[in-house]
Write a structure and sequence with these properties.
Blueprint: no helix or strand
Organism: Mycobacterium decipiens
Biased composition (Low complexity): 85-97
Protein name: PE family protein
Length: 148
């Protein structure tokens, strides 16, 4: 995520939003596991000032890659956590939140298990609250279990 604008003597600028994680690569045409999705970027830090700028939100995790014919779907990427900065005074219009975890990739069409969903990013300082995790990927059409 981008750093917060330095801000004036009174109020620091707000941190930027973390970048979106990339999608995992697909598995091999016949057999193979899909690649893991990239993790979302960490939110930017709020700028300095008498009032510190707000933390930026974390980026969303990327989706896991699909398995094509036989194989397990890739794991979804983790969501990015919020940056450093203020979170308790009157927030901006949209309060900073952790990024949602990426969804797991689909299992192979013939045979395979769906990928595991990624974890949600920290949405509070100290990591006591987290954003929603990603959904598990679908299992194979002929045989297979869905991911968690």
């Amino acid at each position: 995520g981008g750093a917060g604008a330095p801000g004036g003597a009174m109020v620091g600028g707000n941190g930027g939003v973390g970048g979106l994680g990339g999608t995992g690569s697909p598995g091999g045409l016949l057999l193979g596991t899909g690649g893991a999705g990239g993790s979302g970027g960490l939110g930017g830090d709020g700028g300095a000032g008498a009032t510190v700028g707000f933390a930026g939100s974390g980026g969303f995790g990327g989706t896991g890659g699909i398995a094509q014919l036989i194989g397990t779907g890739g794991m979804g990427g983790s969501g990015g956590g919020i940056g450093a900065g203020e979170t308790t005074v009157v927030p901006p219009e949209v309060a900073p939140v952790g990024g949602v975890g990426g969804n797991g990739g689909r299992g192979g069409l013939l045979l395979g298990t769906g990928g595991v969903g990624g974890n949600g990013g920290a949405t509070s300082v100290g990591g006591t609250l987290y954003a929603t995790g990603g959904n598990g990927g679908s299992g194979g059409l002929v045989w297979g279990n869905g991911g968690t």
